[in-house]
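Researcher: I'd like a candidate sequence for this fold, 193 residues long. If you have to choose between options at a position, lean toward the conservative one.
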């Protein structure tokens, strides 16, 4: 069976062409196995983590704790799961707990479950994003947001989030991926929907 190794391009040179606060831009000179060569751009971004906080309310209805915030790239307000970047040298799960606490003031009531990790856009980004499920929360603090963050905390029924994802304020591709991981987990672990 063909494993795709004939598709790999070899890197001969790599240099940073832009250094920014969120990501750097790298240029690589690469050659294919059949002799073609070219220059390619990659965003050198930090790891990301997304936490899916799930719980049932007093009536037994499944809910997500989510956040609403303005996104400068799309120039829109979006509804998302708590998420953020992983600091240099920081454990991804620790970063997830930190982001959850900073954005919502809550900590996991139980162990965080790793749902998966993917490359958010392998065409030109070199980072990965991890997705964790938290079943149950304990709110212990107020928000501790970064200097330029403004975040509303929302509690939204799971059914509504699943129905609206990809529309209106639910316009974030990473959240759609998070939903896919959640649905796969929910299929194998009943009672979450």
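Model: Candidate sequence:
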């Amino acid at each position: 069976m063909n494993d795709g190794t004939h598709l790999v391009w070899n890197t001969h040179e790599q240099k940073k062409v832009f250094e920014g606060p969120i990501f750097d831009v790298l240029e690589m000179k690469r050659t294919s196995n059949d002799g073609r060569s070219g220059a390619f751009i990659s965003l050198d971004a930090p790891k990301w983590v997304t936490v899916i906080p799930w719980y049932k309310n007093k009536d037994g209805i499944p809910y997500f704790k989510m956040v609403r915030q303005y996104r400068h790239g799309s120039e829109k307000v979006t509804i998302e799961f708590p998420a953020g970047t992983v600091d240099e040298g920081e454990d991804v799960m620790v970063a997830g707990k930190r982001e959850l606490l900073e954005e919502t003031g809550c900590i996991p009531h139980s162990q965080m479950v790793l749902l998966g990790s993917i490359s958010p856009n392998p065409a030109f980004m070199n980072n990965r994003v991890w997705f964790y499920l938290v079943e149950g929360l304990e709110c212990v603090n107020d928000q501790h947001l970064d200097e330029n963050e403004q975040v509303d905390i929302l509690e939204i029924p799971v059914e509504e989030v699943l129905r609206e994802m990809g529309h209106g304020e639910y316009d974030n591709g990473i959240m759609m991926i998070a939903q896919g991981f959640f649905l796969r987990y929910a299929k194998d672990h009943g009672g979450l929907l």
